[in-house]
Design goal:
Shape of chain A: globular
Helix content of chain B: 10-25%
CATH topology of chain B: Alpha-Beta Plaits
Strand order of the largest sheet of chain B: 8-1-10-9
Strand content of chain B: 25-35%
Helix content of chain A: 25-40%
CATH class of chain B: Alpha Beta
Radius of gyration of chain B: 16 Å
Shape of chain B: globular
Number of strands of chain B: 10
Number of helices of chain A: 23
Largest sheet of chain B: 4 strands, mixed
CATH architecture of chain B: 2-Layer Sandwich
Structural class of chain A: alpha/beta
Largest sheet of chain A: 7 strands, mixed
Number of domains of chain A: 3
Strand content of chain A: 15-25%
Oligomer: heterodimer
Order of helices and strands of chain B: EHEEHEEHEEHHEHEE
Chain lengths: ~750, ~180
């Protein structure tokens, strides 16, 4: 039994930097004496990278000045993700390097008479300690008792380590807390997922339908760029959102839907499109399975039926259905990305997939194109041990369609029940701040208390590091090599990340950390190359390139080998489903005892005096990861809570006023949040940007700024199909008397 | 040569990439900026209209900041770019007070600073950093004296407005609507 862990708060530790690189570029010199009229430039060098501030992973160039200091980062014009233009977070990536709050030394938890603290340690000591504990845990409980939570580029090598150890419990919250329902729904329908970046052909679309997807606030670079191109070409945008989002402001139609009723709207659209013969008949006949069942299913699900549920005028439902049909097949009902909302999310995304199928947009220009990627060669290694159990055994028979491990189930499986011991005994957490990522923070913290080991690898002292037994300081993406970026796109391509500067302090890259642990665990055979450069060069040579070439170009793109981006007219195509067709009626769902056709089910509504909590993104921040970045902090330092004027009047709230928020379970936010009174939100909901309200004092800037939405998400609606965490079933009210909150806490 | 910029309000999403790109390109100290985002909201739910603009110095043809500068630090350079010679500036702030667009700020080093249209890049044939970085491509920069330039063309094609035209400053930032 593990001892109880206290959350540790410590102060930052400083260090210097040495830079390396070469080239022939210019940078503006900061020049007080000469004045800008005689703008002086200094010699600069540039090194290739791909961005790590979000999952889009845009390729770019890092510019360093004559003294080797990192000055700016720009996009790589050969890159399909960025087309030479980074987003504000990528441009502000310099701040990730310069952040004075970074982790710089390995830290080991020490307990002295009930008081926990960290002490600095050498890598040698920290790695020996971790390896020793992992050995003890895996010998006692089996390798499957170790779980890896990961996000970002470092995940590759830690995942390799876990596979070599024989643990299948490798979960990225980006599945169960984000895009999982979408991917499972699209695989169940088309036999394929939309990918990342998504295969949405926005640049050539005639009609883009966004359902709660706020492109422009979520800064998915390529999509923003293509949406802008689509606006230029006069495409119609239809936005379904309880909030007048930035995208709604660019839209021809805004459908201010009552939250939690999207499935009713989607079914009414499907009804309109089928019963008015708007659908692509040839496409449906050739490629789709289950049309008759679907037609019967939506027979009575009219726009008038949906009106009473969604509050959307039936005339508007009909007009937008016509608009989609008019532009078919160059129409995209966007699959979205963060879609874990109400627990029936996979079914909602099934309705989205069905709508796209009826409009014939999958595999068509202006709809969804066919992705092509490049396989990265794997250096020969001994066979991987076969795990004897996995996260699936925690809830036997459930969530079989979740084809990636479900992070929240790993958390559940870390807590013993009266019937059984915990399956998971140790966590290795890389690049994901679990308390602000997985909802129901208290449950996560309880799980941590039962662990025999928790190791956290991060660049920043995020909340999760405060729970760690050992903290390993990772260097930022600007200071290291990483695995080649190989995301499929219109053309297959790879991108290189290489260091633009030496690691700050005693921070280390993921490959080195993973390999050092592998050597200590007797798994060195899985990490053949001592230096990652040699691995990358070997891989690139197998692909007909070299590390030297990529150092010069940053990106290498190949021509497609899998055929055209779109189906040819009447082309035969075998979909990767049970029937080989696009399954309007999902036989794989039926086989699991799940609804083969999506159904609208009502969800609880806010009680009197409470408002549904909706959260989203700001373009200058990624999750909770960037809030301390000095450059991005200077753009947005805290979140606010959007409140409709009618509600504000009732509560006598004014813009700029600070309030606490309290949820249906009586949880009060740790910190106050500023009110923004705006017509841009419905009166039954409030909205805030995710990722603020950091508790850890080591986050020197972000600490105490704004409120943390994840803290308010204590009611989790588990997705019946894939086990993800629906997070929009939470309601908040306002605590306007700041003193009463302080007394209460 | 008459440099100007068009800002497409129908495409701008207010992401502030222009702001941070300017900061890293021009070493603007954190907490200050040479360009910024303005968002205006009109209407009542559900009939709403939001306009988002990336703003900066208007590089006015009739620039009050240049006229009121006691030292000649503020001046008009080639192509109509309004610049400040930092070594001539005494930081008196007359220009800051005279600018209807609030485009200038007192640099902590003691002089007044503002957008230069990235003159150091433009003279090398590059675009200003805000234009080069913008993910929505909502910024178009070029020479109005060249009838075939991108900016001339877009102003022929599209409706536009300028900010506070009644100030008579003849601003050279055009907002496409």
């Amino acid at each position: 039994m593990a001892t109880r862990r206290q959350f540790i708060k410590i102060s930052a530790i400083g260090a210097g930097v040495v830079a390396v690189s070469s080239g022939g570029y210019k940078l503006l010199a900061s020049d007080k004496k000469g004045g800008l009229n005689a703008a002086k430039t200094v010699k600069a060098s540039r090194t290739p990278t791909y961005c790590e501030i979000c999952f889009w992973k845009c390729a770019g160039w890092v510019y360093t000045d004559d003294k080797g200091r990192i000055k700016k980062i720009t996009g790589n014009s050969e890159d399909q993700h960025s087309n030479g233009r980074l987003c504000p977070r990528g441009t502000g990536g310099v701040g990730m390097y310069y952040d004075d709050a970074r982790l710089k030394k390995p830290l080991i938890r020490v307990s002295d008479r009930g008081r926990d603290s960290f002490r600095e340690a050498s890598w040698e000591e920290a790695l020996d300690l971790i390896a020793g504990k992992i050995k003890a845990i895996t010998e006692k409980y089996g390798p499957e008792s170790m779980a890896l939570f990961n996000h970002g580029s470092g995940e590759k090598y830690f995942a390799d380590l876990f596979k070599a150890m024989g643990s299948p419990n490798i979960a990225a919250p980006s599945f169960a807390q984000c895009r999982g329902p979408r991917d499972v729904a699209f695989v169940g329908t088309f036999g394929d997922q939309p990918g990342s970046p998504e295969n949405t052909d926005i640049r050539d679309t005639r009609c883009l339908v966004l359902i709660g997807s706020h492109i422009g606030e979520n800064m998915h670079n390529g999509q923003i760029q293509e949406m802008s191109d689509a606006i230029d070409k006069g495409a119609t945008i239809i936005t379904v959102d309880p909030r007048f989002s930035t995208a709604a402001g660019k839209s021809k139609f805004w459908l201010p839907i009552k939250p939690a009723t999207d499935i009713a709207l989607l079914l009414a659209w499907i009804h309109e499109i089928i019963y008015n013969n708007y659908y692509d008949r040839a496409y449906v006949e050739k490629y789709c399975y289950g049309f008759d069942e679907l037609k019967e299913h939506v027979k009575n699900l009219t726009p008038e039926w949906a009106y009473g549920i969604t509050t959307i005028d039936p005339a508007l439902i009909k007009e937008t259905a016509r608009e989609m049909a008019k532009n078919s097949p160059s129409v995209i009902v966007h699959p979205g990305r963060h879609v874990t909302w109400y627990g029936d999310d996979t079914q909602r995304l099934r309705a989205v997939a069905i709508l796209n199928a009826l409009l014939g947009s999958w595999g068509r220009r202006g709809g969804f194109f066919s992705l092509e990627g490049k396989e990265i060669p794997v250096y020969p290694h001994p066979p991987l041990p076969a795990p004897k159990k996995s996260w699936r055994d925690w809830y036997p028979g459930k969530y079989n369609l979740a084809y990636n491990p479900v992070s929240n189930i790993l958390v559940d499986a870390s807590v013993p029940t009266p019937e059984k011991d915990a399956m998971i005994k140790g966590w290795f957490v890389s690049g994901t701040n679990l308390p602000l990522t997985i909802p129901n923070t208290k449950h996560t913290e309880e799980a941590i208390q039962h662990l025999e080991l928790i190791v956290v690898v991060d660049t920043m002292p995020m909340e999760i590091t405060g729970w760690a037994d050992v903290v390993l300081p990772e260097c930022t993406y600007l200071e290291r090599y990483d695995s080649l970026r190989e995301s499929p796109h219109r053309k297959p391509a790879v991108a290189l990340r290489m260091p633009a500067a030496e690691p700050l302090g005693d921070s280390k890259p993921a490959y080195w950390i993973a390999r050092q642990l592998a050597l200590r665990l007797g798994k060195g055979d899985y990490f053949h190359f001592e230096n990652i450069e040699d691995l990358l060069d070997w891989q690139l040579h197998q692909m007909g390139s070299s590390l030297d070439e990529l150092k010069k170009t940053g990106v290498k793109t190949w021509e497609r080998e899998s055929g055209d981006l779109y189906f040819a007219n009447g082309e035969d195509f075998q979909f990767n489903t049970n029937t080989g067709k696009i399954e309007l009626y999902a036989t794989s769902f039926e086989a699991e005892g799940l609804l083969p056709l999506p159904v609208y089910t009502p969800h609880p509504e806010p009680p009197q005096g409470f408002y549904r909590l909706i959260y989203g993104r700001a373009p200058m921040h990624t999750f909770s990861r960037t809030s301390n970045n000095p450059n991005l902090f200077s753009l947005m330092s805290e979140n606010s809570i959007w409140i409709n004027p009618r509600v504000a009047k009732e509560w006598s709230l004014t813009t700029g006023q600070k309030i606490y928020i309290k949820n249906q379970d009586g949880i009060v936010s740790d910190f106050p949040i500023k009110v923004r009174v705006t017509e841009r939100i419905r009166w039954d909901s409030v909205y805030m940007v995710h990722g603020f309200g950091h508790k850890d004092k080591r986050l020197t800037r972000a600490n105490g700024r704004g409120a943390n939405d994840t803290q308010m998400i204590t009611n989790v609606m588990v997705d019946t199909v894939m086990g993800g965490t629906g997070m929009r079933g939470n309601f908040v009210t306002f605590v306007t008397d700041l003193k009463s909150k302080e007394v209460a806490s | 040569m008459r440099y100007a910029m068009a800002v497409d309000t129908r495409k701008c999403v207010g992401c502030s990439d222009c702001v941070v790109a300017c900061q890293t390109e021009n070493d603007v100290p954190l907490g200050y900026c040479r360009d910024w985002i303005v968002e205006t909201n009109d209407g009542t739910y559900p009939q709403l209209f939001t306009e988002i603009r990336s703003e900066r110095c208007n590089h006015c043809d009739n620039a009050p900041c240049v006229r009121c500068c006691p030292t000649g630090a503020s001046h008009i350079a080639e192509g109509g770019i309004v610049l400040v010679k930092h070594n001539k500036c005494i930081g008196c702030g007359a220009c800051i007070a005279s600018c209807p667009y609030n485009a200038r700020y007192p640099h902590p080093d003691g002089y007044v600073d503002k957008c230069t249209f990235c003159e150091h890049r433009v003279k090398d044939g590059m675009k200003p950093s805000c234009v080069a970085v913008c993910p929505t491509k909502c910024l178009t920069f070029g020479d109005l004296d060249d009838p075939n330039s991108e900016v001339s063309n877009i102003l022929k094609r599209r409706k536009y407005k300028t900010l506070i035209p009644e100030a008579g400053t003849k601003p050279q930032l055009y907002f496409l609507i």
